[in-house]
Amino acid sequence: MAQQIILTGYRPTGKLHIGHWFGNLQNMLELQKEYDCYFFIADWHALTSEWSDSTHISEYTREMVLDWVAAGLDPEKCAIYRQSDVPEVAELNLYFSMVTPMSWLERVPTYKEQKENLADKDLGNVGFFLYPLLMSCDIIVLGADHVPVGEDQLPHLELAREVARRFNYTYGKHEMATDGSGEEIIEQVVVEPEAIISKTGARVPGLDGRKMSKSYGNAIFISDEPDVMRKKIMSCMTDPARQRKTDPGDPNICPLHQIHKLIGKDDELAKWEEDCRCAACGCVAHKRAVAEELVAYFEEFSKRRREVEQIEGYAERILEEGARKARPRAQETIAKVRKAIHID
Ligand code: TRP
Protein backbone atom coordinates (compact mmCIF):
# COMPACT_ATOMS: atom_id res chain seq x y z
CA MET A 1 0.00 0.00 0.00
CA ALA A 2 1.17 3.50 -0.77
CA GLN A 3 2.53 5.53 2.10
CA GLN A 4 -0.22 7.46 3.89
CA ILE A 5 -0.15 11.19 3.27
CA ILE A 6 -0.54 13.47 6.27
CA LEU A 7 -1.10 17.17 5.80
CA THR A 8 -1.81 20.12 8.02
CA GLY A 9 -1.54 23.88 7.79
CA TYR A 10 -1.21 26.92 9.98
CA ARG A 11 -2.10 30.50 9.32
CA PRO A 12 0.96 32.73 9.67
CA THR A 13 -0.28 34.71 12.61
CA GLY A 14 3.22 35.40 13.88
CA LYS A 15 4.85 33.33 16.51
CA LEU A 16 3.35 30.10 17.75
CA HIS A 17 1.60 30.11 21.09
CA ILE A 18 1.37 27.32 23.63
CA GLY A 19 -2.08 26.40 22.33
CA HIS A 20 -0.44 25.43 19.02
CA TRP A 21 2.42 23.73 20.79
CA PHE A 22 0.22 21.43 22.86
CA GLY A 23 -2.62 21.22 20.39
CA ASN A 24 -1.07 20.18 17.14
CA LEU A 25 2.67 20.61 17.05
CA GLN A 26 3.46 17.70 19.37
CA ASN A 27 1.34 15.54 17.15
CA MET A 28 3.18 16.73 14.04
CA LEU A 29 6.52 15.86 15.64
CA GLU A 30 5.33 12.30 16.16
CA LEU A 31 3.77 11.96 12.73
CA GLN A 32 6.88 13.02 10.81
CA LYS A 33 8.66 9.94 12.13
CA GLU A 34 6.28 7.54 10.44
CA TYR A 35 4.42 9.16 7.59
CA ASP A 36 4.85 11.16 4.47
CA CYS A 37 4.08 14.58 5.96
CA TYR A 38 3.23 17.88 4.32
CA PHE A 39 3.14 20.85 6.67
CA PHE A 40 2.39 24.22 5.20
CA ILE A 41 1.91 27.86 6.08
CA ALA A 42 -1.48 29.09 4.92
CA ASP A 43 -0.58 32.63 3.85
CA TRP A 44 -3.64 32.94 1.61
CA HIS A 45 -5.81 31.99 4.55
CA ALA A 46 -4.19 34.78 6.55
CA LEU A 47 -5.10 37.15 3.75
CA THR A 48 -8.81 36.35 4.06
CA SER A 49 -8.93 38.22 7.37
CA GLU A 50 -5.83 40.45 7.07
CA TRP A 51 -6.53 41.66 3.55
CA SER A 52 -6.66 45.32 4.47
CA ASP A 53 -3.26 45.21 6.17
CA SER A 54 -1.21 42.34 4.84
CA THR A 55 2.21 43.83 5.55
CA HIS A 56 3.21 41.21 8.11
CA ILE A 57 2.21 38.03 6.33
CA SER A 58 5.58 37.16 4.80
CA GLU A 59 7.51 38.01 7.96
CA TYR A 60 5.12 35.90 10.04
CA THR A 61 5.50 33.04 7.58
CA ARG A 62 9.24 33.07 8.15
CA GLU A 63 8.81 33.24 11.93
CA MET A 64 6.58 30.21 11.83
CA VAL A 65 9.03 28.15 9.82
CA LEU A 66 11.73 28.96 12.38
CA ASP A 67 9.42 28.06 15.28
CA TRP A 68 8.65 24.74 13.60
CA VAL A 69 12.22 23.71 13.00
CA ALA A 70 13.34 24.89 16.43
CA ALA A 71 10.55 22.75 17.89
CA GLY A 72 11.93 19.74 16.06
CA LEU A 73 10.20 19.48 12.69
CA ASP A 74 12.80 18.17 10.29
CA PRO A 75 12.72 19.64 6.76
CA GLU A 76 14.56 16.54 5.53
CA LYS A 77 11.78 14.26 6.76
CA CYS A 78 8.73 16.34 5.90
CA ALA A 79 7.80 18.97 3.34
CA ILE A 80 7.49 22.42 4.87
CA TYR A 81 6.04 24.79 2.31
CA ARG A 82 4.01 27.92 1.75
CA GLN A 83 0.48 27.70 0.39
CA SER A 84 0.99 30.49 -2.16
CA ASP A 85 3.97 28.60 -3.61
CA VAL A 86 1.49 25.95 -4.75
CA PRO A 87 -0.86 27.95 -7.01
CA GLU A 88 -2.67 24.74 -8.00
CA VAL A 89 -4.57 25.25 -4.73
CA ALA A 90 -6.22 28.34 -6.23
CA GLU A 91 -7.13 26.52 -9.41
CA LEU A 92 -8.79 23.71 -7.49
CA ASN A 93 -10.62 26.33 -5.43
CA LEU A 94 -12.20 27.61 -8.62
CA TYR A 95 -13.36 24.17 -9.72
CA PHE A 96 -14.63 23.30 -6.26
CA SER A 97 -16.56 26.56 -6.05
CA MET A 98 -18.76 25.17 -8.83
CA VAL A 99 -19.85 22.06 -6.94
CA THR A 100 -20.22 23.72 -3.54
CA PRO A 101 -23.64 25.10 -2.63
CA MET A 102 -23.45 28.46 -0.85
CA SER A 103 -25.56 27.03 1.97
CA TRP A 104 -22.79 24.58 2.86
CA LEU A 105 -20.44 27.46 3.53
CA GLU A 106 -23.06 29.55 5.32
CA ARG A 107 -23.68 26.81 7.84
CA VAL A 108 -20.01 26.22 8.77
CA PRO A 109 -20.14 27.24 12.46
CA THR A 110 -16.71 28.91 12.50
CA TYR A 111 -17.93 31.42 9.93
CA LYS A 112 -20.46 33.11 12.19
CA GLU A 113 -18.36 32.58 15.30
CA GLN A 114 -15.26 34.27 13.87
CA LYS A 115 -17.25 37.13 12.45
CA GLU A 116 -18.73 37.81 15.87
CA ASN A 117 -15.48 37.34 17.76
CA LEU A 118 -13.46 39.51 15.40
CA ALA A 119 -16.04 42.25 15.11
CA ASP A 120 -13.32 44.88 14.68
CA LYS A 121 -12.31 43.31 11.35
CA ASP A 122 -14.28 43.57 8.14
CA LEU A 123 -14.96 39.93 7.33
CA GLY A 124 -17.79 40.56 4.91
CA ASN A 125 -15.54 39.76 1.95
CA VAL A 126 -16.06 36.79 -0.35
CA GLY A 127 -12.53 35.53 0.41
CA PHE A 128 -13.35 35.00 4.06
CA PHE A 129 -16.62 33.31 3.14
CA LEU A 130 -14.61 30.87 1.02
CA TYR A 131 -12.11 30.17 3.81
CA PRO A 132 -13.28 26.59 4.46
CA LEU A 133 -13.41 25.80 0.77
CA LEU A 134 -9.85 26.99 0.26
CA MET A 135 -8.89 24.75 3.15
CA SER A 136 -10.57 21.80 1.44
CA CYS A 137 -8.41 22.55 -1.59
CA ASP A 138 -5.18 22.64 0.44
CA ILE A 139 -5.96 19.15 1.63
CA ILE A 140 -7.34 17.61 -1.52
CA VAL A 141 -4.85 19.05 -3.99
CA LEU A 142 -2.08 17.21 -2.13
CA GLY A 143 -4.18 14.06 -1.99
CA ALA A 144 -3.94 13.93 1.80
CA ASP A 145 -5.41 10.90 3.56
CA HIS A 146 -5.26 12.28 7.09
CA VAL A 147 -5.36 15.78 8.50
CA PRO A 148 -4.31 16.35 12.12
CA VAL A 149 -6.29 19.30 13.43
CA GLY A 150 -7.69 20.74 16.63
CA GLU A 151 -11.31 20.10 17.47
CA ASP A 152 -12.31 23.57 16.28
CA GLN A 153 -11.35 22.65 12.72
CA LEU A 154 -13.60 19.58 12.50
CA PRO A 155 -16.44 21.35 10.67
CA HIS A 156 -13.92 22.35 8.00
CA LEU A 157 -12.80 18.76 7.57
CA GLU A 158 -16.40 17.68 7.28
CA LEU A 159 -16.86 20.20 4.50
CA ALA A 160 -13.74 18.93 2.72
CA ARG A 161 -15.18 15.41 2.79
CA GLU A 162 -18.53 16.53 1.49
CA VAL A 163 -17.01 18.55 -1.31
CA ALA A 164 -14.74 15.66 -2.32
CA ARG A 165 -17.72 13.32 -2.38
CA ARG A 166 -19.83 15.67 -4.41
CA PHE A 167 -16.98 16.29 -6.84
CA ASN A 168 -16.38 12.57 -7.31
CA TYR A 169 -20.10 11.92 -7.68
CA THR A 170 -20.45 14.64 -10.31
CA TYR A 171 -17.32 13.96 -12.36
CA GLY A 172 -16.14 10.44 -11.53
CA LYS A 173 -17.18 7.55 -13.76
CA HIS A 174 -20.12 5.53 -12.43
CA GLU A 175 -19.91 1.80 -12.98
CA MET A 176 -21.81 -1.25 -11.83
CA ALA A 177 -19.85 -3.57 -9.56
CA THR A 178 -18.80 -6.70 -11.41
CA ASP A 179 -19.56 -8.94 -8.42
CA GLY A 180 -23.25 -8.93 -9.22
CA SER A 181 -24.12 -7.06 -6.01
CA GLY A 182 -25.84 -4.41 -8.05
CA GLU A 183 -23.81 -1.75 -6.31
CA GLU A 184 -22.64 1.30 -8.14
CA ILE A 185 -18.96 2.12 -7.97
CA ILE A 186 -17.97 5.75 -8.33
CA GLU A 187 -14.50 6.62 -9.51
CA GLN A 188 -12.57 8.48 -6.81
CA VAL A 189 -11.00 11.29 -8.79
CA VAL A 190 -9.94 13.05 -5.60
CA VAL A 191 -9.17 11.61 -2.17
CA GLU A 192 -11.71 12.05 0.62
CA PRO A 193 -9.63 13.10 3.64
CA GLU A 194 -10.05 12.13 7.27
CA ALA A 195 -9.36 14.17 10.39
CA ILE A 196 -7.00 13.11 13.15
CA ILE A 197 -7.69 14.86 16.42
CA SER A 198 -4.51 15.76 18.24
CA LYS A 199 -3.90 13.91 21.49
CA THR A 200 -4.50 16.84 23.78
CA GLY A 201 -7.55 17.53 21.61
CA ALA A 202 -9.10 20.06 23.91
CA ARG A 203 -8.89 23.76 23.41
CA VAL A 204 -6.04 25.28 25.39
CA PRO A 205 -7.48 28.23 27.28
CA GLY A 206 -5.89 31.64 26.97
CA LEU A 207 -5.10 34.00 29.82
CA ASP A 208 -8.72 35.18 29.92
CA GLY A 209 -10.27 31.71 29.78
CA ARG A 210 -11.37 31.92 26.13
CA LYS A 211 -9.66 29.71 23.57
CA MET A 212 -6.04 30.78 23.23
CA SER A 213 -5.67 32.87 20.11
CA LYS A 214 -3.39 35.65 19.01
CA SER A 215 -6.33 37.66 17.79
CA TYR A 216 -7.95 37.58 21.24
CA GLY A 217 -4.78 39.00 22.81
CA ASN A 218 -4.76 36.19 25.40
CA ALA A 219 -1.85 34.09 24.14
CA ILE A 220 1.48 33.04 25.60
CA PHE A 221 3.96 32.65 22.75
CA ILE A 222 6.47 29.85 22.90
CA SER A 223 9.21 32.30 22.01
CA ASP A 224 8.20 34.87 24.65
CA GLU A 225 11.15 35.96 26.76
CA PRO A 226 11.08 34.37 30.25
CA ASP A 227 10.02 37.62 31.88
CA VAL A 228 7.19 38.12 29.43
CA MET A 229 5.99 34.59 30.11
CA ARG A 230 6.09 35.21 33.84
CA LYS A 231 4.21 38.47 33.55
CA LYS A 232 1.53 36.90 31.40
CA ILE A 233 1.02 34.01 33.79
CA MET A 234 0.74 36.45 36.70
CA SER A 235 -2.13 38.12 34.83
CA CYS A 236 -3.87 34.82 34.05
CA MET A 237 -7.47 34.39 35.08
CA THR A 238 -8.26 31.86 37.84
CA ASP A 239 -11.57 30.57 39.19
CA PRO A 240 -13.61 33.79 39.56
CA ALA A 241 -15.29 32.33 42.64
CA ARG A 242 -11.99 32.71 44.51
CA GLN A 243 -12.23 36.36 45.44
CA ARG A 244 -10.18 35.82 48.57
CA LYS A 245 -7.47 33.34 49.41
CA THR A 246 -9.86 31.76 51.90
CA ASP A 247 -12.50 31.04 49.22
CA PRO A 248 -12.40 27.45 47.96
CA GLY A 249 -11.97 27.09 44.19
CA ASP A 250 -12.63 24.65 41.39
CA PRO A 251 -9.47 23.78 39.43
CA ASN A 252 -11.56 22.40 36.58
CA ILE A 253 -12.76 25.85 35.62
CA CYS A 254 -9.49 27.65 36.37
CA PRO A 255 -7.65 28.63 33.15
CA LEU A 256 -4.35 28.81 35.04
CA HIS A 257 -4.76 25.23 36.15
CA GLN A 258 -5.66 24.06 32.64
CA ILE A 259 -2.36 25.55 31.47
CA HIS A 260 -0.57 23.96 34.42
CA LYS A 261 -1.98 20.55 33.46
CA LEU A 262 -0.15 20.73 30.14
CA ILE A 263 3.27 20.88 31.76
CA GLY A 264 2.92 19.77 35.39
CA LYS A 265 3.74 16.45 37.03
CA ASP A 266 0.72 14.36 38.04
CA ASP A 267 1.43 14.20 41.76
CA GLU A 268 2.15 17.92 41.99
CA LEU A 269 -0.95 18.77 40.00
CA ALA A 270 -3.05 16.65 42.35
CA LYS A 271 -1.66 18.56 45.31
CA TRP A 272 -2.44 21.96 43.74
CA GLU A 273 -5.96 20.76 42.96
CA GLU A 274 -6.56 19.63 46.49
CA ASP A 275 -5.14 22.85 47.95
CA CYS A 276 -7.32 24.92 45.63
CA ARG A 277 -10.48 23.02 46.57
CA CYS A 278 -9.93 23.54 50.28
CA ALA A 279 -8.43 27.03 49.95
CA ALA A 280 -5.06 25.92 51.32
CA CYS A 281 -3.12 27.88 48.70
CA GLY A 282 -3.55 31.24 47.06
CA CYS A 283 -3.82 31.83 43.32
CA VAL A 284 -0.76 34.06 43.36
CA ALA A 285 1.42 31.27 44.71
CA HIS A 286 0.00 28.93 42.09
CA LYS A 287 0.76 31.46 39.36
CA ARG A 288 4.36 31.84 40.52
CA ALA A 289 4.84 28.08 40.38
CA VAL A 290 3.28 27.75 36.92
CA ALA A 291 5.36 30.67 35.60
CA GLU A 292 8.63 29.04 36.65
CA GLU A 293 7.65 25.64 35.28
CA LEU A 294 6.63 27.15 31.98
CA VAL A 295 9.87 29.09 31.59
CA ALA A 296 11.88 25.93 32.33
CA TYR A 297 9.77 23.88 29.93
CA PHE A 298 10.55 26.17 26.98
CA GLU A 299 14.20 26.82 27.80
CA GLU A 300 15.60 24.25 25.37
CA PHE A 301 13.30 25.41 22.58
CA SER A 302 14.31 29.07 23.11
CA LYS A 303 17.96 28.15 22.74
CA ARG A 304 17.38 26.40 19.42
CA ARG A 305 15.10 29.17 18.21
CA ARG A 306 17.88 31.72 18.72
CA GLU A 307 20.31 29.44 16.86
CA VAL A 308 18.15 28.96 13.76
CA GLU A 309 17.41 32.68 13.64
CA GLN A 310 21.10 33.28 13.07
CA ILE A 311 21.30 31.13 9.94
CA GLU A 312 21.08 33.46 6.94
CA GLY A 313 18.20 32.64 4.55
CA TYR A 314 17.32 29.44 6.41
CA ALA A 315 13.52 29.82 6.37
CA GLU A 316 13.55 30.73 2.67
CA ARG A 317 15.61 27.67 1.78
CA ILE A 318 13.30 25.38 3.71
CA LEU A 319 10.25 26.80 1.93
CA GLU A 320 11.83 26.43 -1.50
CA GLU A 321 12.71 22.83 -0.83
CA GLY A 322 9.20 22.18 0.53
CA ALA A 323 7.53 23.61 -2.57
CA ARG A 324 9.72 21.36 -4.71
CA LYS A 325 8.25 18.37 -2.89
CA ALA A 326 4.64 19.57 -2.75
CA ARG A 327 4.06 21.00 -6.22
CA PRO A 328 4.42 17.86 -8.33
CA ARG A 329 1.74 16.17 -6.21
CA ALA A 330 -0.56 19.17 -6.64
CA GLN A 331 0.07 19.22 -10.38
CA GLU A 332 -0.80 15.57 -10.60
CA THR A 333 -4.14 16.14 -8.88
CA ILE A 334 -4.95 19.12 -11.09
CA ALA A 335 -4.24 17.07 -14.23
CA LYS A 336 -6.69 14.40 -13.05
CA VAL A 337 -9.28 16.99 -12.07
CA ARG A 338 -9.04 18.83 -15.39
CA LYS A 339 -9.49 15.59 -17.25
CA ALA A 340 -12.53 14.64 -15.18
CA ILE A 341 -14.26 17.97 -15.77
CA HIS A 342 -13.26 18.16 -19.44
CA ILE A 343 -11.13 21.27 -19.05
CA ASP A 344 -8.13 19.53 -20.50
N1 TRP B 1 -7.86 26.64 9.12
C1 TRP B 1 -6.66 26.27 9.78
C2 TRP B 1 -6.53 27.12 11.04
O1 TRP B 1 -7.19 28.12 11.17
C3 TRP B 1 -5.45 26.46 8.91
C4 TRP B 1 -5.52 25.66 7.66
C5 TRP B 1 -5.63 26.14 6.41
C6 TRP B 1 -5.44 24.24 7.57
N2 TRP B 1 -5.64 25.13 5.51
C7 TRP B 1 -5.54 23.94 6.17
C8 TRP B 1 -5.33 23.18 8.49
C9 TRP B 1 -5.52 22.63 5.72
C10 TRP B 1 -5.32 21.88 8.03
C11 TRP B 1 -5.41 21.59 6.64
O2 TRP B 1 -5.77 26.79 11.90
The CATH architecture category of the largest domain equals 3-Layer(aba) Sandwich
Indicate the low-confidence ranges by residue numbers: none
- CATH topology of the largest domain, what is it called? Rossmann fold
Q: Superfamily at the CATH H level of the largest domain?
A: HUPs
The coarse silhouette is globular
Largest sheet report = 3 strands, parallel
The topology string of helices and strands comes to EHEHHEHHHHHEHEEEHHHHHH
Widest beta sheet: strand line-up? 1-2-3
The number of domains is 2
Q: Report the portion of residues in β strands.
A: 5-15%
Highest CATH level, the class of the largest domain: Alpha Beta
Tell me, rounded to a whole number, the average pLDDT: 93
Computed over alpha carbons, the radius of gyration is 22 Å
The number of distinct helices, counting runs of at least 4 residues, comes to 15
Q: Catalogue the ligands.
A: tryptophan
Distance linking N and C termini: 29 Å
Please estimate the helix content.
40-55%
- State the total count of DSSP E strands: 7
Class by helix and strand content?
mainly alpha
